[in-house]
Each structure stands twice: as C-alpha cells, then as structure tokens.
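We close this part of the discussion by returning to an individual protein. Part of our work consisted of pairing the sequence of a single chain with a tokenised description of its backbone. The amino acid sequence and the backbone structure tokens for this protein are reproduced below.
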Amino acid sequence: MTASIVRSSTMFTKAIDRHSFEEIASGAILQEDGIILETGTYEDLARRYPNTPVHGSGNEVMLPGFVNGHHHVGLTPVQLGCPDLPLELWFAARMVARNIDFYLDTLYSAFDMISSGITTVAHIQGGPAFADLETKVEDILKAYEDVGMRVSYSFMLRDQNRLVYQADEDFIAGLPAELRGPTAAWFARSKLVVEDQLDMFKSLFGKHAQSRRKRIQLAPANLHWCSDHALTALGETSRAYNVPMHMHLLETQYQKEYAKRRGNCTAVEYLDRFGLLGPNLTLGHGVWLSERDIDRVAETGTCVCHNCSSNFRLRSGIAPLNAYEARGVNTAIGLDEAGINDDRDMLQEMRLVLRANRVPGMDEDDVPGMGQVLRMATVGGARTTPFGEQLGTLEPGRAADLSLIDWHRISWPYLDTDTPTIDAVIQRAKSDAVRLVMCDGEVIYRDRFFTRVDQEAALTELHAQLAGALSNEEVERRKLSKALLPYVRKFYADYLSPHATAPFDQRNAR
C-alpha cells in the first residue's frame, strides 16, 4: 500500500457535540498504509508532498467512513418472501426464507452499504447454529475481505425460547399433534449448547486476530433467548478476551413484559445482576427502556444502537433517543435487516434519525442536531465495535476510512449560500452522489464501480442460484411457518400488562 492525498471542497474531520463539528475548507488528508499522517488544506499538503497521488477533484465533500452498527443479512426479508410483521410474529414468518449462498448474500448488502459511504459494519449473524456454521461464517468474512470493507462479526448466541417467549418444549406441547413433530424437527436443526457456540467464537477470534479489517466480538441474542448460564458465560468470555458484546434488548413492549415475568425487574436491571452493563455492551434497539434504565445505562457507560427504520417497519416503537442524548449515552446507527426503503443507505437513515425524533417544541437542544447524527454514524458506531477509537474521525493516527460526496449533486440547481454545508449533506445527499469510498487507505469504490469485485457478475450468480424451484425442505418449512403463525399470535394475545405502554416522552396528547 502506498501513500496518497485525498482532497475535498470541504472536509468534516469529526463531530464535536450535537450541534457542532470540525470543518476544513479545501481540506485534505495525507495517508500511508491506511493510517492518516496529516490533515490540512489541499494547497499545503500538495505543496509539501508534490509527487504523492491525489484522489478527488476538489469538488466533493469529505466525511469519515460511516459505521453500520447493526446488520444481519444480504437479501432482505421482503425479498425472501417475509412481509413486515410485528417482531414476535416475524420470528415464525422468517422461516419462509430461502436457502442462500452466504458469500454472495453478504456481497449483495456490502454493495448497498459501501455505495452510501459505509466502510465498517457490525455483522450480527442470526439463525440456527447448524453443524457446519463456522464454514459459512468464513464465507461471510471472505465476502467482506474481497469487497474491501471492515467488519466486526458476531454470532447471536442463544440457548432457549427460540420461537416465542416460552421454553421450546412447552410451546411444542401446546400445539396440535400434527404440528409437534415438524416443529421439534425444525428446532433440532440448531445446536443450542452454549459452550459449542463460544468455542466457535474462540476459534474465529484466533484465526482473525491479526487482520486489519476484521474483528470478532460477542452477541448475546436477547434476554429471552439467553439463560442465566448463557449470560454468565458470555460475560466471562467478554472479559477474558476483552471484546465487546452487542445484544438485542427491549426492542418491543413484549420483551419489556418478558423481563418483568422472568426477574420481577426490567431487562436492564436483570443484565446488571450479571455485571454485563458497561462500555463493552451495546444494546441493540433499546426502544422500551424506562427512565431509571436510561439513567443506569448512562451511569455505566453502556452504548445503544438506534435502529430507526427497523423499529418503524416492525411496529416496535420509537426509541427515546433524545433522552439518551440528554444523559450522555453513546449512540450508534444501525440499518438492521434493511432501511425504510428496503436497502442499506446510511445517508437516508441519518435523515430518518434526524426527523423521527423531532418532538414538539422550540428548544433545539431537545431534538437531534447535525453534529449528533454525524457522530452517531461515525465515531458513535465505531465505539460499539472492537475497532473503537481507530475509526470515526479524520485525524492523524486514525484509520484512513472516508467517502467523497459530489457537492454539485447536493447543491444543484440551487442552494442558498447561508445553508451550512453539513446541513445540506445530511438533508440532501443521496447515495448516487457518493463518488469515492476509501477503507484502510484503499479506494474500494469509485464512480459507482467497486474496485475489487465484479458487482454485476456477483448479482447475476446470486439471481441464478435462486431462480430455480424451491427445494422440498424449503416447501415444507414454508408450510410449517404458515401453520405455526396462528399459534404464535395466540401466545401473545393476553401477554401485555395494562401499564406496559404508558409513555414518558412527548409524542402526542390525550
């Protein structure tokens, strides 16, 4: 890898606070071997390093590479035949998904992410822990390696309650006789031994410990999916290997009720009993935390990943982002299964985060600011991964991960000169304006073409693999999904207590 200069019309090096950021007119960076050596004006760097290759025309805005803090799959559930349903029903509906090639599927979503300026992704793999899982994980990691982006990989560890918030055997016992056998067989596809799943983490951690663009971390799947034994083992492993954990938590009001039934406390209080709260834990979604929970999260330095599109699509609710910000909680942005337009466009998601949390009133400190949203999409996300402070800002000593966005596409045909540049970028930039993406000092995307992988060939192969008829196993699994859905719905019919949805933040009035 060689040195290079990347130039811009305006460079945003970092977010300072919710309303401010560091901006350099005609800014540029000098990087070598993937590390930023200097920042300044292009005129100064070009004069002092005259023979260094230059990227950019000087007509683009430069931003730190975005971090997608919460991601799962390539082809979206909608593409695979599963409509948006309330989360608890969605688990059963997701059984209709096709058997896919993990490598090509991962490339598909990587293309989406990179083309909107994402350089790092927290890939949190769900699904069953089948026998040859580690081989499939290597396919996922190879896809990210081939396309050139950074990944922090984790597998969602679970050992109970796979379909509803009840023991598998108890749910099966309540089914009609003709569904018990097929459901038990479906559960049997997945090995649930905690130690086996942690052994896979240790194996992957050892294999990829020296990689510049790959990290391995832990993911307790959710409170209802993890036994006390699993929570204890995960906490011990996280501390022993000094790796962060990313845990779905309180995504829905049903999960809030589950925690009360399980421990006569909140889900956050339950995790606190195991010493899991702290900077090494990120709560995915975090929609239904109480005010006391938020105080405790802030006190312990626990992070939250805000998955705004997903929360809308699955009727989960709106996370109290403004309360998190007021208490100083580090927050990231996650695109989850897919964004509001069924893609992985971080520029669009930043706008949604900005707009969805604009509560009534006139005090600008009550709602997200441009600096806050930029921080969430960059350094806020980086802090939830093992990459940590290496990423998220354009400063000497940090990784050379960035994007260049065409200012003409943002400002054409007219933009008032008093409009701040960052306001225009966050509110108007589309992915088709992204001209260049650099990760680890390497240009991996330029003028809508990926430099390492043939996008058209990969997508053509993915299409060909899925163009044929469903396999017998896929047909039977679809039948089972449709047959189980009414019983899943019945399980939750009277699950919520009357006080479960009383709000503490302002969205409307009686």
Observations:
- The first strand starts at residue 4 and ends at 7.
